[in-house]
Structures are given as structure tokens and as C-alpha cells.
Design goal:
3 helices; mainly alpha; 8% strand; 98 residues; 2 strands; two-stranded parallel sheet
Length: 98
């Protein structure tokens, strides 16, 4: 079952404000997704390997930056996964106004 958002406000202006805020938040998520994709693409260009392959096959010893770079790349991949999931939930959410 998807996310259901129920808005209980007395005036229509308040409902519209909440809807605008949700749309603005979705735009922020989209921007964060694009920024994270660019960061991942930098790692992929530098090492000539996809993020998927990196996560499956590589270790910190395979990277010039060692542990720190491994954690950064893996962290960006995890962040992207979370951002996409959150956006998908909001995109598929049903909004009911009471």
C-alpha cells in the first residue's frame, strides 16, 4: 500500500499551502538526486567502473583514496537509493483533504 497523506485544515488556503510545500519538497529531492548522480558519475569516470560493479566487486584497497573514498562512493550510492525511494513514495502518495 502506498503512502496516504490526510490533510485536516479548516481553510482551502491552508490545504493549498501544504500541497505547494509538498511539491517544493519533491523538487528539492529531484535536485538532490541529480546532484548525487553527478557525484557518482565522477567516481565512475575516475575508476572506469559502474557504481553497481564497484559495490559488488571492489574494496577500499582498489581506490586511490582508500577507505575515505570507498566510504564516500558507497555513501553516495546509498544516499541516491534513499532519495529515489522517498521521492517515489511522495509521487505515488494519495492526498485526501478533510
Amino acid at each position: 500500500m502506498g503512502v496516504q497523506i490526510i490533510i485536516e485544515l479548516n481553510d482551502r488556503d491552508g490545504v493549498q499551502a501544504v500541497k505547494r510545500a509538498l511539491e517544493a519538497y519533491k523538487e528539492q529531492l529531484r535536485a538532490s538526486i541529480e546532484r548525487t548522480k553527478r557525484r557518482l558519475a565522477e567516481f565512475e569516470r575516475r575508476y572506469g567502473v559502474s557504481t553497481e560493479r564497484f559495490l559488488k566487486e571492489m574494496t577500499a584497497e582498489d581506490l586511490e583514496g582508500g577507505d575515505l573514498e570507498y566510504v564516500e562512493w558507497a555513501g553516495e550510492a546509498k544516499l541516491l537509493e534513499g532519495l529515489k525511494s522517498e521521492l517515489a513514495e511522495l509521487e505515488n502518495a494519495s492526498i485526501k483533504v478533510r
